[in-house]
Amino acid sequence: MEVLRTNDEMTKWREERYRKGQIVGFVPTMGYLHRGHLALMEEALRRADEVVVSIFVNPTQFSPGEDLDQYPRDWEQDLKLCRDLGVDAIFAPEVEEMYPSGFQTRVQVENLSQNLCGLHRTGHFSGVALVVTKLFGAIRPHLAVFGEKDFQQLVVVKRLSKDLNLGVEIIPHPIVREADGLAMSSRNKYLSEEERNSALSLSRALLAACNMVAEGERRVDVLVARAK
To answer: Where does the pLDDT of residue 193 fall: very low under 50, low under 70, confident under 90, or very high at 90 and above?
Structure first.
């Protein structure tokens, strides 16, 4: 497994694979990997000849007052997990490599990024769109796997790839959950027991409504009442 730190190193690696006619898959992450990330990597490995995983805590997608400095990191463990799984390369640039002095460009996916999570996280999806555009440009993968846990992000990235003709097939992957049903996330470590139980109420409500739909219920008011 190769660890690539610069855009030039990434370009050289990618061009070698392109010359061989290999399919390149990509999984973007901010590190502190867990079983959810590994599921995305496994999906990429099934679909591609060689797989790149990026590990980059992207400062442009953190809103003011968020946890950029405190975001969990475990580089050695991340390396081991990727190596053991059979990942071919890690792209782990420094911030200065991605956003050098004088960098001025922004990327904005209108409408899709303005509601829901985007309504409460100023600039978040603009930062996501920017870093994804840069990563796609450096790696030029044939496909990239994104989890459905961050569903709004998935929709934004699909639109981004289509609108800018980036030529990357976006593969969605179902949510991977903890044993108690909580969606796996690097930030779960922040949750107290009470907060974790509160977070679980959402998946439990959705599951209850889904079970009713499976049994034939179609009345929206009844489904909403059950979810509440």
So the answer is: confident
The CA distance from 175 to 117, in Å, is: 17
Enumerate the β-bridge partners of residue 26: 52, 144
Mean pLDDT of the chain: 95
Residue 4: both structure tokens together: 């690539």
Residues carrying an active site annotation:
37
> What CATH number is given for 2-184 in this structure?
3.40.50.620
Q: Is the pLDDT of residue 138 over 90?
A: yes
Q: Is the pLDDT of residue 74 over 90?
A: yes
Nearest 5°: CA angle at 96, between 164 and 120?
60
Domain ranges, ordered by start, for the chain: 2-184, 191-227
Q: Which amino acid is at 38?
A: L
Contact criterion met (CB below 8 Å) for 123 and 152 = no
